[in-house]
Amino acid sequence: MTMLVMTGTGTGVGKTITTAAIAALAVDGGQRVAVLKPAQTGVRPDEPGDLADVRRLAGDSVTTLELSRYPDPLSPEAAARRSGLPTLDPGEIAQAASDLDTGHDLTLIEGAGGLLVRFDGTGASLADVAWSLGSLVIIVAEAGLGTLNATALTAEVATKRGLTVAGVIIGAWPAEPDLAALSNLEDLPVAAGAPLLGVLPEGLGKASPEEFLAAARAGLSPWFGGEFDPELFAGCASAEK
User: Which residues of this UniProt protein bind substrate (predicted)?
Assistant: First the structure.
């Protein structure tokens, strides 16, 4: 059994698409996959959330579980306070992940925003969940200017909290990368202190399941069952510029 904690350097970096891509490859490889979304914010009860995207892209065989949903697009703690709904306890999240892990080969825990976004008034965060589970952390980062600092901060706090960052993935690679994005292919692994494990194209969430699986295989490392080679990708991307 394997558990991976998926965190981002911020909001809108492609974390859900990256989670779905890892799940799709694992399912295609014959694994039983679960995705846990502890807190979904900014979505009403009658609207589809991130897990609906995961199932649409990775397939209905993926087990999905959402623990709490808050309508306001805020941090889980702030959204819970504003709505008057209960906050989440990291122990509750860890228990749910452990329960899923017993019946699956791979369990992905997707956070809300970054590693230290608060779940409750005590400051409990995804970092606490990862520590209690002893699971590896995958950082999903942006491609362009400003991403190195955000990635380095995420990796540094993870390390100081006793967590292991397995790698970094660029969640939305632009169709026309600029100089900063191209340079970051080399610099992001240094900032993360971990290898570049994938680069996924922007707009991938609009792909059909078949197209999505093909892009996931091309864009993710063999560590996930893909074919991504960071040196080859960097060379091709620079040549196209």
Answer: 41
- Cut 0.85: pTM above it: yes
Say whether 159 sits in a helix, a strand or coil. Answer: helix
Continuous segment of H or E residues that includes residue 155: helix 147-160
Q: What's the pLDDT score for residue 170?
A: 98
The single-letter DSSP state of residue 56 is H
Tally Cβ neighbours within 10 Å of residue 94. 22
> Is 37 labeled as catalytic in the residue annotation?
yes
Q: Catalytic residue among 37, 160, 206, 241, which?
A: 37
Q: Give me the long-range contacts of 222-229 (CB less than 8 A, separation at least 24).
A: 223/166, 223/167, 223/197, 224/21, 224/22, 224/25, 224/26, 224/197, 224/198, 225/25, 225/26, 225/28, 225/29, 226/25, 226/198, 228/197, 228/198, 228/199
Distance CA 137, CA 150 (A): 15
Residues of the binding site for substrate: 41
In the three-class reduction of DSSP (H, G, I as helix; E, B as strand; rest coil), residue 66 is classed as strand
